[in-house]
Write a structure and sequence with these properties.
alpha/beta, TIM Barrel, seven-stranded parallel β-sheet, three-stranded parallel β-sheet, 15 helices, about 45% helix, binds ligand V47
């Protein structure tokens, strides 16, 4: 491997990683252009230093309460305008039914996300959390991205802090990482002009952290952004984490173009996916976990990504809509046995976790 690092002209970067020094944007650009296996090797060094051979997964359930959306971002096949034949909004009773239908399973996390809905009142969102937490008190409720939190503040006339406190009292414990997309204003203006700004996304995450609500963070890559814009995004997350230490996990989200307004784009290749995974591990030296989200990567590539910096593979899931409406080729569900087999075959030790990465 030393030969490979030398041939790739990465000796100085390898030394930085070895000494626990922070990588710069320029280092990141050099790594993006370097051979895949050299970058993967360096990311794996850091991954193993942090987590050894452990690879985490969670027994979870996804609930998408609605896809009727005011934002209609160009990269999204899930959001639909109100009245669209594929649009849906679940009643609170329908959501309770989905939870009740799986009460016999040892679910440890409920992941709840939806849309920027045209007319649901704030009470709906609070009551949703309360009812799910009542039915599933032992599971961690990970709900509502910063985009939704921003919308709740708008419709309720409350501050972000007040909205988060009310939801926390109702049972919300962690925010999922969605809505970050790419922070660069140029990209946001083009692909999601109605979405909250990068500054607001970061401010909501930091407010949540200060209130004792942890969160995840993401980056949607492989559409119109440059490598530099990806690296700037990662550095912005790293700086926010320096301030609050509230991010649990980073998830690079591989763009699926089908059924979106960007369907003319090819989407990322396997090499792009693996390099972005490795770069995420190497740049985000202060975020503990990096997730290979098998729904977007496919189980096969997620398995390989465990050797490229990822230490988590998400969960069992069962019903996923955001990626499947963009024609994802992955299945809707993996059993615990299937997840464990994927992890073991990649040479790692499967560890079941909850949302806070507490081992079960
Ligand atoms: O914010 C939308 C992305 C996100 C597409 O926190 C797309 O544990 C690819 O954030 N192709 C929602 N990506 C999903 C998300 C998430 C998923 C799993 C776990 C966690 C977590 C968070 O999905 C959106 C957007 O960035 N997205 N459309 C698409 N066509």
């Amino acid at each position: 491997m030393k030969k490979l690092i030398k041939a790739a002209n990465l000796v100085d970067i390898a030394e930085k990683i070895d000494q626990g020094k922070r990588l710069s944007l320029e280092d990141g650009l050099r790594l993006y252009k370097a051979p895949l296996l050299a970058v993967g090797y360096l990311a794996n060094l850091m991954r193993e230093r942090l987590h050894g051979r452990k690879t985490y997964y969670v027994y979870n359930q996804h609930i998408n309460y609605s896809n009727e959306c005011l934002n209609l971002c160009k990269f999204c096949a899930f959001g639909k305008p109100k009245g669209h034949p594929e649009g849906f909004t679940l009643t609170l009773e329908e959501i309770e039914q989905k939870i009740k239908a799986r009460l016999k399973e040892p679910i440890k996390e409920i992941h709840i996300v939806g849309s920027v809905h045209p007319d649901l009142p704030f009470d709906y969102y609070v009551e949703l959390i309360r009812r799910v937490k009542t039915l599933r008190p032992e599971a961690v409720i990970k709900a509502y991205t910063a985009t939704e939190i921003s919308h709740f503040a708008d419709i309720s006339g409350k501050t972000i802090e007040a909205v988060l406190k009310i939801l926390k009292d109702a049972g919300l414990e962690v925010l999922p990482g969605g809505g970050a997309e790419i922070f660069a204003p140029r990209v946001r203006q083009e692909v999601c002009p109605r979405k909250l700004t990068a500054e607001k996304w970061l401010a909501i995450a930091k407010t949540a952290h200060r209130l004792g609500i942890k969160s995840n963070c993401t980056m949607l890559y492989g559409h119109i952004e440059t490598y530099e814009e990806r690296l700037q995004h990662l550095i912005a997350l790293r700086e926010a984490q320096d301030e609050t230490r509230g991010f649990l996990c980073f998830i690079p989200l591989s763009f699926h173009p089908k059924n979106t307004k960007l369907s003319y784009l090819p989407g990322p290749t396997g090499v792009e996916d693996l390099k972005t995974m490795a770069l995420s591990r190497l740049m985000l030296d202060n975020i503990p976990h990096i997730k290979a989200y098998w729904i977007m990567l496919t189980p096969k590539l997620a398995q390989v990504a465990l050797n490229f910096g990822a230490d988590d593979i998400d969960g069992t899931i069962l019903e996923e809509k955001i990626t499947h409406m963009a024609k994802a080729e992955s299945p809707q569900c993996l059993t615990r046995t299937e997840l464990e087999a994927l992890i073991k075959e990649a040479g790692y030790e499967p560890v079941e976790r909850d949302t806070f990465f507490r081992e079960i």
